[in-house]
Write a structure and sequence with these properties.
This protein is an alpha+beta fold and 155 residues long. It has 2 domains: 30 residues; 93 residues, Tetrahydropterin Synthase, Chain A, CATH 3.30.479. It has 3 helices and 4 strands; from the N terminus they run H-E-E-H-H-E-E. The N and C termini lie far apart (46 Å). The relative contact order is 0.15.
Length: 155
């Protein structure tokens, strides 16, 4: 009787063989497909935008005034991180990837401070690319799931 390991090994070989075949639906080689995994997580944080207090473009005194951003305020930051993978069988296991990303904030490897979503994205990218070099990465960070930034880092 074959073991589960033997079964999975056989199934992986079969799936790998499919990658070299041509898709019957659209007649494109499967090897040209771009493969990504993505994970999401949330992190509570306090940040502020000190320039908003005095910059006349921000402290307008009318309905467009956002000077309140100059004071520390709380957000639930929503993260969505995608990373390019090279094959279909857990090149990067996404639960482990998600936990590692969450721990970067839990262990204070990355600080939120007075940073914009774009700045936070750059900080996160530097950590990811150090661990997973040579991969394209997409990072989306929003404040409370409402407004945010999406940056694609093409290596």
């Amino acid at each position: 009787m074959a073991s589960y390991y033997d079964y999975m090994k056989r199934r992986n070989r079969e799936e790998d063989a499919k990658l070299t075949e041509t898709s019957t639906t659209i007649n494109v080689p499967m090897t040209t497909a771009k493969r990504w995994i993505w994970v999401t997580f949330k992190r509570e944080g306090i940040h502020c935008y000190p320039a908003a207090l005095e910059d006349p473009a921000l402290a307008t005194g009318d309905e467009y005034d956002v000077s309140f951003l100059g004071y520390p305020h709380r957000h639930q930051f929503h993260f969505r991180v995608a990373i390019k993978v090279t094959h279909n069988d857990r090149d990067i296991e996404f639960i482990q990837f998600q936990r590692w990303l969450e721990n970067l904030y839990k262990d204070d490897v990355i600080q939120l401070d007075h940073k914009s979503c774009e700045m936070m994205s750059d900080d996160l990218f530097n950590q990811i690319v150090a661990k997973y070099p040579g991969r394209d990465i997409k990072i989306e960070i929003s404040e409370d799931g409402e407004n945010g930034a999406l940056i694609e880092y093409n290596i």
